[in-house]
Amino acid sequence: MRIGIVGGGQLGRMLAQAGAPLDIRFTFLDPGSEPCAAVHGQHLQADWQDPEALNTLTATCDAITFEFENVPAEAVERLAERRPAYPPASALATARDRWLEKSLFRSLDIDVPPIARIDSQADLDTAVAEIGLPVVIKTRTMGYDGKGQKVLRESEDVAGTFEELGGVPLILEGFIDFDHEISVIAVRGRDGEIRHWPVVRNEHRQGILHRSVPQVAHPLQAQAEDYASRVMNELDYVGVMAFEFFVTAAGLLANEIAPRVHNSGHWSIEGAVTSQFENHVRAVAGLPLGETARLAPCAMLNVIGAFPERDAVLALPGTRWHDYGKAPRPGRKIGHVTVLAADDETLETRVEAVETLLVNDLG
Amino acid sequence: MRIGIVGGGQLGRMLAQAGAPLDIRFTFLDPGSEPCAAVHGQHLQADWQDPEALNTLTATCDAITFEFENVPAEAVERLAERRPAYPPASALATARDRWLEKSLFRSLDIDVPPIARIDSQADLDTAVAEIGLPVVIKTRTMGYDGKGQKVLRESEDVAGTFEELGGVPLILEGFIDFDHEISVIAVRGRDGEIRHWPVVRNEHRQGILHRSVPQVAHPLQAQAEDYASRVMNELDYVGVMAFEFFVTAAGLLANEIAPRVHNSGHWSIEGAVTSQFENHVRAVAGLPLGETARLAPCAMLNVIGAFPERDAVLALPGTRWHDYGKAPRPGRKIGHVTVLAADDETLETRVEAVETLLVNDLG
C-alpha cells in the first residue's frame, strides 16, 4: 500500500511516521527541492497542478490525501477521477473559503460569531455600522497563523481597508467575548464511522498556536463532537478534520475547520491510543479506525522560529521531542514538544519547565 | 546526526522509526538484498566484516550500534576505533557466549540455575551424573528462539549428544521449578545513568516469545533492576539491554541477557512514556534518557510465521499493528500487535480477542 500526499511539510512527515509501523509507503508531491517529509518516502518535485506529476501520483499510489487545503480544485478533481482521494474536493473547497465555511456552519445550525461577506468597501462600511467595532477582517481564502488579516478598532481604521487587503473577497467577523479556545479532532472512515479525540484547550500567541492541552472532562465535549459530526457527514468527509471553537457563556461558537491533521492534535502521537496521524492514514487507506482515548495527562508545546537547547528539553521528565527537519525562520513551526505526566498537577509543573526553555521567535 | 546500525531486521527498523521524530537518520549494514529496515534509511549491502563497508559506516555515521549480538569481534573493534560504538565489544562477546554470560552473573552474585561447561562427551556424562536429568544442552554461541538446543530427559538421550550438536562448546542447564518468566528492559546512558522499564511477564510457545505483559507492581521489580544495573555497570554498557529471569520461590534466577532492544520491550512503543527504541537511540547518540513509566495497561502479542486478517485485528478496540515488511515463513517473527486498555480487566478481554484471530505458524 502506497499513499500519495499532496504536500511535503511536517504534517506529511508525521503521517509517514505514523504509517511506517503499518508498512504503508508514501510519495510526496511538493515543488520544494527538499521538503521535510521527503526523508520518509519518494518525492515528486513538481507544482501541485503539474499534470505529469499528478499522473505519476495516481499511477504509483493506491490512495491520495492532502496536507493542506489550498489545493487547486482542478488538481483534486484530476486525482479523484483515478484514485480514492480524501478528504473530498468539496471539503477542501469549503475549508479554504472562510465565507463558504461559516455559511456551512450556519446551514447546519452551528452557532458562529457575527459575520458579514465583504466584496467592496461599501459592504465593509455597512457591516461595521451594523456589527460595530472592533471587528477582524480576513481574506476569504488563503492566510493562516494570523496572516492575511487585520483588526479594525477605531472608525478611522475602516476607510481604505478593502483596497489595503488587495481588493479580494473578504469576511468580517465581530469580536466575541469568549473564555478560551478549544478544538476537537475527529476522524471519519470510508464507511462513515466517526471517532473524536478529547477536546483540546488551545492557547495562541500572535495568532500562532502556542500550546494545546487535551481535556478529558470538558463540559462541551458532546457539543463539539456533535458539531464535528454534522460537518463531516454533510461533506461526506473521509480522514481527520479539526474543528476550532470559541467557548462562550452560551456554549460553542464555531471558528473554523481544517480538513486535515492539525497542530492541536499533535499531542495524540504519544498521548492517545491512536494518533490523529495514524487514524488519518487508516481512514484514507480504508482500514478500521483506532481508539481515540487519551492515555495520560499530556500537553503539546510548539517550537517556533528557533530551537531551544534540545538536550535540556530531553533531560526534563516526561518530554518527547519532535524536530521537523526544517531550517529555523521567524514564525515558522519547526518542531514541537509533547509533555506527559501521571497526573494534572505534575503535568503543569513539567509544562512550565519546558516553557522556561523555549526561545520561540514568532517573527 | 546519523546512526549506523549493524543489521537491517525489524529491530533496526523500529530503531529508525523511533529516531525519526528526533530527526536522526540511519544507515543499515546488512548482506541481504532488501532487509526490512532499509525502507527507513540507507542500506550498505555487504557482509558484517567487509572492511570497505565498515569504513563507509564509520565515515558516514556519527555513532554505531548493533541489532544483534553475533557480530564478529574484529568488526566491532574496527568500528569502535573510529566512532562511538555501543554497546561495547565486551558486552556483545559476553552475551553471545552462554557460558561467559552465566559466569558473569555468578561473579556478580546473581543466582543462576545449575550449569556446567561441556567441552566433551565426558564433561557431559559427568555433569549429568552430578546435576541429574532432565537437563537442557545448548550451544555456547549462536542459536536463539529455541534453536541450537536439545532437552535430555532419559539416560539414553545422553550418549552421543556432544557429537550430535556438532562437537562445539556447550553449556548444560539444569531444569528448575519456576512460576513464570520475566524480563526487565534497562537502558544506560553514556554518562552511566540507568533507567528501567516495569518488568515484563513473558509467555513462550515452542521456545519463541508469544506474549509480553508489563507489570507495574511486580514484587521482584527491585531485584530485577538491581541485577540489570550490576551487569550494565560491570560491562560499562551503553544502550538498551534486556535481562531474562525465571521467577522461583527463592526469587529470581538469571536466564540470559540480550545486548540490544528486545522483543519483550516492544510494548513500550505505545505503552511507555519513552520506548526502548527511542531510549536506545538516545543513549547511543549521547542524549539524555527519557522517562520509562508505563502509560496504561498493555500487552504485546507476536505475529509469527503467518499474518492474521489485519483489518479484523485493527477493528478490535485498543489495538496497534506492527508489520515488519517481511515475507511470512514458519517460525519467523513478521510483526506484533500492541493492545492497550484503561484497566487490567478490559486488557485481558481485549488480548483474548486478538489471540483468537492470530494464526501463528511456529514451524
From TrEMBL, chains A, B:
One of its GO terms (biological process) is 'de novo' IMP biosynthetic process. Residues 102-285 form the ATP-grasp domain. Its EC number is 6.3.4.18. Keywords: ATP-binding, Ligase, Nucleotide-binding, Purine biosynthesis. It is an enzyme of class 6 (ligase). Pathway: Purine metabolism; IMP biosynthesis via de novo pathway; 5-amino-1-(5-phospho-D-ribosyl)imidazole-4-carboxylate from 5-amino-1-(5-phospho-D-ribosyl)imidazole (N5-CAIR route): step 1/2. ATP binds at residues 98, 138, 143-149, 173-176, 181, 204, 255-256. InterPro entries: ATP-grasp, ATP-grasp_carboxylate-amine, ATP_grasp_subdomain_1, PreATP-grasp_dom_sf, PurK, PurK_C, PurT/PurK_preATP-grasp, Rudment_hybrid_motif. The keyword ATP-binding applies. It catalyses: 5-amino-1-(5-phospho-beta-D-ribosyl)imidazole + hydrogencarbonate + ATP = 5-carboxyamino-1-(5-phospho-D-ribosyl)imidazole + ADP + phosphate + 2 H(+). Coiled coil: none annotated. One of its GO terms (molecular function) is phosphoribosylaminoimidazole carboxylase activity. Homodimer. Belongs to the PurK/PurT family. Catalyzes the ATP-dependent conversion of 5-aminoimidazole ribonucleotide (AIR) and HCO(3)(-) to N5-carboxyaminoimidazole ribonucleotide (N5-CAIR). This is N5-carboxyaminoimidazole ribonucleotide synthase. It comes from Salinicola corii.
